Amino acid sequence: MSDAQVIQKLTEFERLFNLSNLVNDALRTVGWIFVRGLSLLIDSLESLTDDILMIKTFFNNPQVVEFVQTIQPFLYVLLAGSFVFTGYLIIFQKKFDREGLLINIFISLMILGLLSPTMKQLNEFTDQAVNQVKSSSSSSIYGSEKETISETILKENLNDLVAYDKNGFENYTENVVKNNVPTKLIKGLQINEVFDSNKLDISTTGSKLSKSFILWDGSEEVLGELDQSGLDWNNQYYYRYHPNWLTILVTLGVMGFTLFSIAYKLARLSFELAFNYVLAILVAPADLHSGQKTKKVIQSILNTFLVIILIFVSIKLYTIGTAYL
């Protein structure tokens, strides 16, 4: 490779060829420790979110079921009182919706008899929808079941000069492989590892690039040679890895806040499901005359399951957008 070609490659990949020194070593070490700390937090929040997602079946908790069974005699009293009140309205109100009464009675009986198994079916459908959202599109943040969110964020925002060398240092703007580091090892990288041709299996082109830098001789750009003949700590090398620091920190920070908000939202929705489940059983027998309150409670239950699905759809779209940018 001619000097002109080396200069062209160094210019083209200028963003990735960063010289190592003691100051940069310290800054990169501190930055990587901070990134790993954020990653640990994200992984914990991700696990917490999955755990909270499992408690949305709180409405089917044995204690909740036992409570519903203990109030069944009271439900019969409500139903009888509601029939009496509805009869009064039929007799004394000419505008009473008599056709809607049969529908309201049917809905009330369905709620009293089938609400619990129906909610179990809705819960299973929600689980399937959430799992489908999380598992689809391997290029997204969820990647595969073996990868955590933070691992995928780091994987997608880490440039490895060795990987570019294997691709012949093709055009930086093209869709080339940024790194070949296994995802499970991404957090354990030595972030200050250098691009040393004596220690790494790289091509002739990569070896030439690892030892060269651009000089200005007063009239044109010329190629200089890095000083790599002294002590290891004082030699000049390029860093092997170039993380997209800003993207990683912003993405991890936003993802952490998002996962915390999701965990809180899911916990609240789980309680609302149990509350609306009990509320529907109480309201249905007492609302025969209009059915409006019963319909609102049922609508709230359906909306809760829908919101749970949409939460994971929204985070999916966000992370796909992050990867795209």
TrEMBL record:
The chain crosses the membrane at residues 74-92, 101-119, 245-266, 297-319. The keyword NAD does not apply. Keywords: Membrane, Transmembrane, Transmembrane helix. Residues 20-325 form the DUF8208 domain. It holds the Pfam family DUF8208. It comes from the Bacteria. Signal peptide: none annotated. This is DUF8208 domain-containing protein. It comes from Salmonella enteritidis PT4 (strain P125109).
